[in-house]
Every structure is written in structure tokens, then in C-alpha cells.
Amino acid sequence: MVRYRTLIDALDAAPDDRPFVTAWINEDEQETVTFAEFRRRARLQGGVLRAHGVNRHDRVIVIMPQGIPGMTVFAGAMMLGAIPAFIAYPNDKCEPSKYRSGLAGVTANLKAKVVVIDEEFPDDVLSHVSLTEATKSEATKSEATKSGATKLVRASDGRRPGAEEELPGPGQAGLSQADDIAFIQHSAGTTGLQKGVALTHSAVLRQLEHLAQALKIDSAKDRIYSWLPLYHDMGLIACFMLPMVYHIPVVLQSPLDWVLHPETMLEVITEHRCTLAWLPNFAFQFVARRTRPNRRAQYDLSSVRALINTSEPVRASSMQEFQNAFAANGLRAGVLQTSYAMAENVFAVTQSDILRPSDRPPQNGKPGHSGDLGPPRIWADGRQFRSSHRIVPVAEGTPGSVLMTSSGRLLPNHEIRIVSDSGAILADARVGEILVKSDCLFEGYYNRPDLTAKAIVDGWYHTGDLGFTLKGELYVVGRRKDLIIVRGENIYAQDIEEIAASHPAIHDGRAIAMGVYNPDLGTEEIVIVAEVESDELLAHAPEIEQEIRCAVVTSLGVTAEMIFLEPPKWIVKSTAGKAARSTTLEKLQKEHPELNFES
Amino acid sequence: MTAEEVQMVEYILRRIRKPNLIIDENTPLVSTGLVDSMALGDLVLTLEDLTRMRIPPGRVKPKDLDTVAKMFATAARVGKPQK
Questions:
Q1: Residue A247 belongs to some domain of the structure
Q2: Is A504 in CB contact (< 8 Å) with chain B?
Q3: Same domain? A322 vs A415
Q4: Does A33 lie in the same domain as A105?
């Protein structure tokens, strides 16, 4: 592997005629650009940005639909030495006022010189974009732009030159240094609360080198499939930066198109012989359950050598369902893999052991376990896990046991510690907070030294995630802040939420469990907020609450003191589409001031 | 409503389990939150079954599925015969 100084140096070194990005819309509508064409369009977009006063170190917010134009704007900004950041594009269901408010937080923090949008960006959201006081004052102070507020730029598709000049080619536009900030990626959260993670070229390149080694990347043979949004680390790092630096073709689909047609993931992989993809846990089940039996025969997944489950707690049942559903389609045993990743470390901290196809036996079309070849799994005593945070292995399927799947082994130059609440370093098989140190760790949250000081202590990033190590593998069990401690018993919010959401009256995935401190009892009480499928079901709230309460007691042995059933769309969601616990609790507190929560 | 539209309404009612709800071909579903965005894929599959058409990816947006009438209009506009 050639060691590059910057990400743009790596892009410049790519073979001209190798395909880079294929924007897949459907079987008849696809556009592929080679690395040479991608560079040309990026230089054009860079020229547009320069004409709008963008210079080295200026922040550029990119709010464009998933596709080649947005990617070339992003790369064009980096060619200028500017610092781009992708922000989620408003969808049909987003409330303009909420989106504006969230965007106000992000633009104020970044003090962006330019916000780039596409020609179809909705006007009701548009009114805000450039008008925060912070961005105004920064732009006014800028030597480069005397005209005032942050500029709003509507990007073209970048295919044709405009009045602006294209940026110079390789070797002339190298404005960035290795330790300059390459871009900002935002960690998940409700939009306004997102934290901008500033990453240098060298940190990103080191991460990619480790990742490529762990994945056994073969630039001549690999091809990535992705529907993952580019404003999240999975999409940006694994499916844009990795192929850009390692010169691998990537086939991209819009997240919305994938939600409407989940089965197309199989179609794209079959058509383009993709070898690698990353998916959040829910997607494994989502695709398996929405693929027509009568169409399954047309899919061939034999080209895939890794489908990597990351970004959500890994559920063995989801992976097994996918494996069983598609074993007859050439999906080899051991293809389903796992990773533990976070924006603050550029991306991956761990990766399960990826095998080359030749290392694996074929399954002869029979559904079966991937357990022997995939990431290690362990059955642990549920009582010990909850009461003393210890992992005591038990026989498979033992009543009351919990099944856990490893997220893999550490990447090179990575260290982790598992620590107790008091900061003591814990041994194997003890659950505690995961701390990370690596040579690609972020330097801080952009313009937020207060948050940075809390997150990085003595060089260790406090992830807020809970996990344990065993035989060199890392198992991630949940978020520390989501742990509920009831009379000394450790209850994982996800376990309660899974139980509540399985009730037929509750909307799938729309339940939140939280621990709220009760000063009279001196311990936390369990509070569940769940959305019913429809308003009418609220008339049956007492019965539904009782059924959920019974299910929680039966499964976990603890009582849910308070259950709030709410109408559809009540729970606050993050930009990643996940339920946001802290923001939902704030909302609950506002609506129920009599409860006097003290968390 | 056509027979297919009636079947779609029945499917939606079964899916959202709303006992006293009455919907017709013009009832907004997506924009009002009656149907969640993660359920849109199921609506597309059902629409394909009822129309015996293939709805090509990339040609449909959530707003095209907001009412039962719009769903069938969309299928007529962009649908292709199933292979």
C-alpha cells in the first residue's frame, strides 16, 4: 500500500479508467463514473466553491441527495483544502421547523463559509440555512469574503463546466497537509445536538490502512455495495473514503430507494458481483422478510465475502435469519461479520475475522449455522450478567441465558480498556465502559472543547458503551447511559425495549426504556415510553400497559413502574432514525411535570 | 373504489390494526403518520401484487404512496409488466 499524504493524493493516484462510483437507481437507470471522471467533476465543483470565496480551512456544509454530485462537491472542497461536512437531506416527513432548528445548531457550530444544496432543496427549509448569527459574523470577519453571511450555493450535477474555472490537476492543488482537518463527520443525535467530529487526513488514512488490512482488501477484485447515508460514518468512511483511497468500485443506492425496495440490495449485489457491504443490525431482518420467495432464485450472493453488521447492538437472531433466508442463494457460511465502530475513531475499532472465499467450505445450498466461521458467540448466565456484570458461560439455550455475538478483534494500533464506574480496569468477562485509544482517534469535537475534555481523558476516549472482552474478542452490550440499575440489578434498556416493542399494539421499534432515580427509594425505577400503532388503541391503555408489565417481569424479573403509552410519532428520533432517549425524557418531563423526574 | 383499491385498503387496515378507522382511496396515509416510512416497502410489494406490475426503484417517492388512489396512479404511471 502506497502511503499517501492526504486523501486527495490518494484520489489523484487512482487509475484513470477504473470505475469508481456507480449510482444505481434501477436495472435500466445507472450511472458509472471512472476515477478520472470523478476527479474532473470534483475539480469543477471545487472551482465553483472557490468562485464563491471558499479557501483553505473554510467549512463547507453539503446537503445533497445521495449520489455522485454530492460526493464530487465533498471531494472538490477537500481539493481546495476546505473542510466539508455532509448533513442529512430533509425527507418528505421532516417538519421544516424542526429541521431548521437542527440545522441552525450545526451551522452555528461549524461557522460554515458555504452551504451547498441541490436544485430541489425544499424552499420552506431553505429560508433558514445561511442565517444564523454565528455564521454571519464569521463570514463577515473573513478576509476572503466581505459580503456578509454564509453563502448558499445551489450545485449543478457537476458534469459540465460553468463560468467558474476548474481547479488545477494533481500536484498543483495540493493545498492540504497531512495533519490538516480533512472533513467533519457528525456523530448521531437529534440534529441540533449532533457533535462535529473533526478528522485529519492522516487519521483517516491510518484508519483506512488498518481497515483494509483487517478486511484483506483486494483493489483488483473487491466491489462495495451501499445504501448507507453519507452523513454517517458507515456510509462516509466505509463506502466513500475506503473505495476512494483503495481505488475500489462502489455501487451506491439512495437510502430511501432501499427502504421502498429492500430486495434491491440483492439485485445490485447480484448484478455487480459486489464483495463487501456494511449494514446496521435491523437491515438483516428487514431484507430477509421483504424478499419475495418467488424472486429469490434470481439472486446470486456467491460474490459476497463479507456483510458486516455494525452501528447497532448485534443480535445473533437477525444474522441467523438472514443466513437461513439466503443460504440457497450462494451466501457462504462466515460471510456475516461484525464490527464495532464510531465516528470519533474515524470508523472501526474492531473487526471480526474476515475469510477469503477460498477459505470457506460451500454450504451446498443448505441453510445452516455460520457460527463456526462467523464471529464467536457466547451464551451467558442472564442473572450473573444483570446482577454482577459478570459473564459466566453456560450451555447453549440454557433457560435464562443471554446470547451474545462478538464484535471482533482490535484493529492494529488500537487499544481498549474496560473500566468500572470508579475507573478501575476490569479483567476479561467483566462488563464495564469501553475506553478506546488508537492512532486514528479524533482530536476533538469541532468548536466544542467542553465536550472534548469530557470525552478524551489522558488520551483515552470514553465511548459511553458497555462491553466486555473474552479471548481477545470484544463484545458490546449497550450504552452506559442506557443502563438502568434497579436495586443493584443491572438492566439493559434494549432488553426492556425489545419486550415492549414485541407487544402487538406497540409500533415496531418505538419503545424506550429509561431509569429514573426515585429519591424516596434510593434507586432507579424503570420508565417505559411506547408508541401505540394507532390513536384508538390508547382507549385500551390499561390492558396494554398491564400486558407489557407482565412480560417485563416474566422475562427480566423486574417491574416497570411507569409505562406511558403515547400516540404514533411521539417519540423523538435521532437523525439515524433511532429513538433518542434523553430528548424523549425531556419531552416526557415537560408533559408530566407532576412526576418530578430526577435522573 | 376498484376491487384492487378495496383490497389495498383492507391490507392497510390489517397492517395498522386500527379497529375503528375508516379509510378510503383518498385518505392520507404517509403524511399523517398512519403508515410509517419503514412500512413503505410492504406497501410497494402489495401494490405490485394487486396490479401485477413491477414498480421500478427510483421512480417512486413516499408522497406517491400517500393515498390508495395515488398508489394505483403511480403504478399506472411507472409500473412495468412483471417478468
A1: no
A2: yes
A3: yes
A4: yes
Let me know if residue A234 belongs to a domain. Answer: no
What range does the domain containing A520 cover? 487-595
How do residues A92-137 score in pLDDT, each as one tens digit?
666 677 677 777 778 888 888 888 998 888 877 766 554 443 333 3
Give the integer Cα–Cα distance in Å for A341 and A62: 23
**Number of Cβ within a 10 Å radius of residue B22:** 8
Same domain, A271 and A304: yes
In a domain, A252, yes or no: no
Quick check: A66 and A43 in contact, CB under 8 A? no
Tell if the CB–CB gap between A286 and B40 is shorter than 8 Å: no
Neighbour tally for A34: CB within 10 Å: 17
Question: Does B36 contact chain A (CB < 8 Å)?
Answer: yes
Which residues does chain A have with pLDDT short of 50?
130-148, 189-191, 357-358, 360, 362-371, 599
Buried/exposed code over A214-238 (b: 16+ C-beta within 10 A; e: otherwise): bbebebeebbbbbbbbbbbbbbbbb
Q: Which three cell numbers stand for residue A59?
A: 467549512
Phi/psi of residue A451, nearest 5 degrees: -70, -35
The CATH number linked to A116 is 3.40.50.980
Chain A contact set for B58 (CB, 8 A)? 25-26, 29, 254, 257
Alpha-carbon dihedral sign for residues A389, A390, A391, A392: negative
Closest residue in A to B43 (Cα–Cα) = A260
- Assess whether A126 and A267 both reside in one domain: no
Report ipTM (2 d.p.): 0.93
Q: Nearest Cα to B81, choosing from B60, B46, B45, B55?
A: B55
Measured in degrees and rounded to the nearest 5, phi and psi for residue A590 equal: -65, -40
> Is A276 a domain residue?
yes
Residues A451 and A516 occupy one common structural domain: no
Class of the CATH domain delimited by B3-81? mainly alpha
pLDDT tens, residue by residue, A38-78: 999 999 999 999 999 999 999 999 999 999 999 999 999 99
Interface test mutation site (partner A, options B13, B17, B40, max chain A beta carbons within 10 A): B17
Burial class of A427 by CB neighbour count within 10 A (0 to 12, 13 to 18, 19+)? exposed
CA nearest to B15 within chain A: A533
